[in-house]
Amino acid sequence: MKNLIYLDNAATAFPKPEEVYNFMNEFYCNHGVSPGRSGFDASIEAEELVSETRKLLMELFNGDGDPDRLTFSYNGSDSLNMIIQGLAEKGDHVITTMLEHNSVLRPLHHLQIDGVIELTHVPFDNHGYIDPDDIKKAIRPNTKMVVVNQCSNIIGTIQPVGEIGKICKDAGVLFVVDGAQGAGAANVDMQAMGIDVFVFTGHKSLMGPTGIGGSYVMKGVPVKYTRFGGTGVRSAQLTHLEEFPYRLECGTLNMLGVSGLNAGVKWINKTGIENIHNKELALWDKLRTGLQNIDRVITYCAENTKNQNPVLSFNIDGMPASDVGMMLDVDYNIACRTGLQCAPKVHERIGTIDIKGTVRFGIGPFNTEEHIDSAIKAVEEIASLKI
Predict the structure, then answer these.
(1) Are residues 320 and 235 in the same domain?
(2) Does 250 lie in the same domain as 167?
(3) Cβ atoms of residues 367 and 7 within 8 Å
(4) For residues 95 and 138, is the Cβ–Cβ distance under 8 A?
(5) Cα dist. 381→231, 250, 315, 320 in Å?
(6) 297 near 288, Cβ under 8 Å?
(7) How high does pLDDT run on average in the chain?
(8) The CATH number of the domain where 249 resides is what?
(9) How far apart are CA 99 and CA 308, in angstroms?
(10) What pTM did the predictor assign?
(11) Are 144 and 174 in contact (CB under 8 A)?
(12) Average pLDDT of span 113-133
């Protein structure tokens, strides 16, 4: 691990800032109890951390002023399931895109095959972007919501969320954004962008641990609860509580995850999203140009740094992505991701579904120019091998 070149940050950011590790350890050693369930000091202090973290995230996403509408879950996939199933009703039409992760594709597909919804998948262009006009043209009288990811986890393109949000507002359609790749990496302004629900995960660019995520639901969005259980409030009531945050939370929260997320957001606020993004994107551009100058290397939707997250997918002509990834790992100690990366429709669109996907490099805040130079050299040497 000491000499590992980690380029799988699009899956999970690693390493985390030292203050995240330190705070998680300190907090859990001293306050690792159930928040708000009891009146003793440690429980009260744990609840105060939860409330502070809700507020930090609400402010980061510019929600509409009520921190209790920021709810926690296991991860982005967990929250997307709750949001999608909590909004969809029999006879609804839903619009999504071919850029989506299975966290969106699968819940919607199950609703479709169960006869609950009608579903439209809008394609992206050859550069990796959704045309907002295509969303507008797809809206029907029974369209309930549009679900779009802010940033692709395969090709890293940042979508025109604000333009899509305006179209949804004008049409009276709910707008749900999958921010798994965007939260902490790209600017999010729910009010300015017309976002009704923003879903995030903690273990990527928010610099938290795995097992924590959530959503922010704007006022007036009619999401139903789909889970029932303990809330520590009004326990004699047998129906689940309707108010936030209990509406989308039940049982004891992942306090270790919340504490890590708290420290991660504070680190992001201190460092600055723009500063982090600019550094990562400069490394991405160096990687992009380096790989594109190697014979047999094919990159996908990697043209320039405009509206781009530091995620790059490529293949070496004639070599399976899995073989390239194995050689990068075994021979060069470079960690990356290969395959379909849980987004099969992206691979359908870029023509890599039949060759079982791509090799994906995801750059994080602790990568260096030396890491990128090593990755370029490794790919060049692998590409020079005879097949």
Answers:
(1) no
(2) yes
(3) yes
(4) yes
(5) 57, 52, 14, 15
(6) no
(7) 96
(8) 3.40.640.10
(9) 14
(10) 0.97
(11) yes
(12) 98
